[in-house]
Design goal:
The protein is of the alpha/beta class. The protein is built from 19 helices and 32 strands. The longest helix has 23 residues.
Length: 685
């Protein structure tokens, strides 16, 4: 059930982890349950189209049964689930079968005669006295969590202790009128706490039973899809009201008074050097003065911070942070030192709302620029994209993005290759940045020559060396499976690849690698948390941490996990080659934002120096977005977006996780208070 909220809030596939070597092969699609004709039918969809279905029914034996089938841009989920209740009405036995985009979805749970609960998934197994607790599944069809939601609703605000750990509760709020197949109906907005970092919205029926979810990805009963925009608008507004109160608690006059940080090490992102014994004065939202310690005078009433043993860096950028749909995650971004972002694909209305509320002081969030995804209308189209069916429609979409006042256009994998050059030319004529995934049938260099200013994701850059059969299917899972299979054998020093790097460097093509997306998929074996999340394991909610555990992308064609790891090593090496050739690298996560520091660590493994790695998350993305006049460096006159961290970052870049104070538009924000407000219980390791 927790996986449902992780997936829908991040607008990504909600796959569970693949099986470890000790577990059997996943049940094949043709061997899964078949829903009867009278089964309840739910639909998974986004603004770009239909993505999947879930059916629910009662078996002749009285078990609750579910069947889920989903295709998200080539990532496939085919699962079923059965739940047998005990005499007390709580689940006594659960079985989940099938596979997801990340492998085997097998999961079992049962309660023995002594009242002890036992569970086994692809990532964990255990047992504990059940008592009054309730087991929350690791994966399974999204709708199968409805019984848990109904139990939480019945429990009221006191909630229920969950297994393997955690506590969850539900609150119910305002009503909304919707239209169903049989006419008007009433539903009620609810929020569940305990499954994520923050309260998550869903909808219940008039008699307080689970109804569905409406967001970037929606799950609603078939026939109710037209209600999704209205329900999303209401739940977004309710979330915005909660976050508004949090923002006002931080963005208050007492936190906007001048601050002098004395005797601190600073990072000069322009020169790529660290300077010891510096003083930085912040006043009126700007960097007022920078100089050697003792040379900058604090104005009357200023807060003076002793920076001894600390490092002051420009506010961090995540250059691949999809904004929209989760205001709480934006707050958490600030808590982890991110003061700026580039969103490579957000919905227009959500972006306008974000920018408007932030400017009014009603949303505590980083500041940045946004592009919008354009994809060809297709079953594999990107969720949240503007879908088009012709070149003329593609050009019209470009104008829609420009008219909304946004920054860029992101083309996607199902776009017709012949449309790219004319559509990119139209975007450039309007002053828009052009980037994206590489459409199926194209190689990255062809896309750059057709007008791309930037390439998104290292796997698409690796496509330059992939066989034609991979290129032709790169809008499916082949976009990962090709590089995973063939990447280990790519000669990064070949004349062809060297010429590729050099042309990108000469053109100044920006590179957005997002290595942390691919590292856990390609290298994890299920024995430990991925490196990007391990530092947060002790301060994140238990359910979130459990959801972070994966065993890697499923192996195929006789390949081994070590083969995948060698291919990932080539991806890391590819970043180093591009950097050497002069192609500017920007650090992005395509995730929560918590992965950012690990991304920088991987750049160091690729051969970038500590300072060069930190530049990819400071001045370089500021230049990418054209915001470097105000952001990206500790320079007098620039906006005071800065982060004070505990330790010497010049010696250990992971100290960036040890955030003590964030300066956002000059506001002095306490790191621990930010973490607590965003769902983190303490300082990450």
């Amino acid at each position: 059930m927790r996986k449902f909220f992780t997936a829908t809030l991040l607008c990504v596939s909600a796959g569970t982890a693949m099986a470890t070597a000790a577990m059997a092969e996943p049940v094949k699609k043709e061997d899964l349950l078949v829903a009867p004709d009278d089964a309840r039918h739910y639909v998974i969809f986004s603004q770009s189209g239909h993505h999947g279905d879930i059916w629910a029914w009662q078996t002749p034996e009285g078990a609750a049964a579910y069947r889920m089938s989903m295709n998200l841009r080539g990532w496939i989920t085919e699962t079923d689930q059965t739940i047998v209740d005990g005499a007390d009405g709580t689940p006594a036995r659960i079985e989940i079968r099938g596979f997801t985009d990340s492998g085997d979805a097998s999961e079992t749970y049962y309660v023995d005669a002594d009242g002890t609960a036992h569970w086994k998934t692809a990532v964990d197994e255990g047992s504990a006295p059940l008592g009054d607790k309730r087991y929350s599944t690791y994966g399974g069809p999204w709708l199968a969590g409805e019984a848990d939601f109904n139990a939480l609703i019945a429990a009221g605000e006191e909630g229920i202790d969950m297994l393997p750990s955690g506590h969850a509760s539900v609150t119910i709020g305002e009503e909304a009128e919707i239209t169903g197949p049989d006419g008007p109906e009433t539903v009620k907005l609810a929020f569940v706490k305990g499954f994520g970092f923050a309260p998550s919205p869903f909808w219940v029926t008039e008699d307080d039973r689970f109804f569905g979810f409406a967001g970037g990805m929606s799950l609603l009963p078939a026939g109710y899809e037209a209600n999704a925009p209205k329900l999303k608008e209401i739940s977004d507004a309710a979330t915005a009201a909660m976050v508004k109160d949090v923002a006002h608690s931080f963005l208050k006059p007492a936190n906007a008074t001048p601050t002098l940080v004395e005797n601190v090490m600073t990072f000069d992102s322009l020169a790529g050097t660290y300077l010891s014994g510096q003083s930085v004065l912040i006043a009126d939202g700007r960097i007022a003065a920078v100089g050697a310690s003792g040379t900058v005078e604090a104005p009357s009433g200023a807060t003076v911070i002793d920076g001894t043993g600390k490092t002051l860096v420009p506010g961090l950028w995540d250059a691949h942070r999809h904004t929209g749909g989760d205001d709480w995650n934006l707050l958490q971004n600030v808590a982890t030192g991110m003061t700026n972002y580039r969103s490579p694909g957000s919905e227009i209305d959500e972006t306008i709302s974000l920018v408007t509320r932030r400017a009014a002081g009603d949303l505590l969030a980083p500041e940045g620029e946004t592009s919008v995804i354009i994809d060809r209308k297709d079953p594999l189209a990107a969720q949240g994209s503007i879908t088009v069916s012709s070149l003329e429609e593609a050009k019209a979409a470009v104008h829609t993005i420009k008219d909304a006042g946004l920054w860029g256009v992101k083309f996607y994998t199902s776009m017709t290759p012949e449309w790219i050059a004319p559509a990119a030319a139209e975007a450039h004529k309007l002053g828009l940045h052009v980037h994206g995934h590489i459409p199926a049938g194209m190689r990255p260099l062809e896309a750059v020559r057709a007008g791309y200013d930037e390439i998104t994701h290292i796997n698409f850059i690796m496509m330059q060396a992939m066989p034609k059969e991979v290129i032709d299917k790169s809008n499916t899972a082949a976009r990962l499976e090709g590089p995973a299979k063939y990447g280990k054998d790519v000669d990064l020093d070949s004349p062809e690849m060297t010429a590729f790097y050099n042309e990108l460097g000469e053109r100044g093509t920006y590179i957005d690698p997002t290595l942390t997306v691919w590292e856990p998929l390609m290298t994890s074996d299920g024995t430990e948390l991925a490196p990007e999340y391990a530092p947060f394991a002790k301060v994140a909610p238990p359910g979130v941490v459990r959801g972070w555990k994966i065993s890697g992308y499923p192996l195929f064609d006789g390949l081994t996990r070590d083969d995948f790891r060698r291919s990932f090593d080539k991806m890391v090496g590819l970043v180093g080659k591009l950097h050497e050739a002069g192609a500017p690298i920007v650090a992005g996560t395509d995730g929560w934002g918590l992965e950012l520091v690990r991304e920088l660590e991987l750049y160091q493994e690729a051969g970038l120096t500590n300072a060069e790695a930190l530049q990819t998350a400071t001045i370089i993305p500021a230049r990418l977005t054209g915001m470097d006049e105000d952001f990206g460096s500790i320079t007098e006159g620039k906006v005071a977006n800065l982060v004070l961290v505990d330790g010497d970052v010049s010696q250990d870049i992971t100290r960036l996780r040890r955030v003590e104070t964030v300066f956002l538009d000059g506001y002095r924000l306490d790191g621990q208070e930010l973490r607590e407000a965003s769902g983190l219980s303490g300082m990450p390791e």
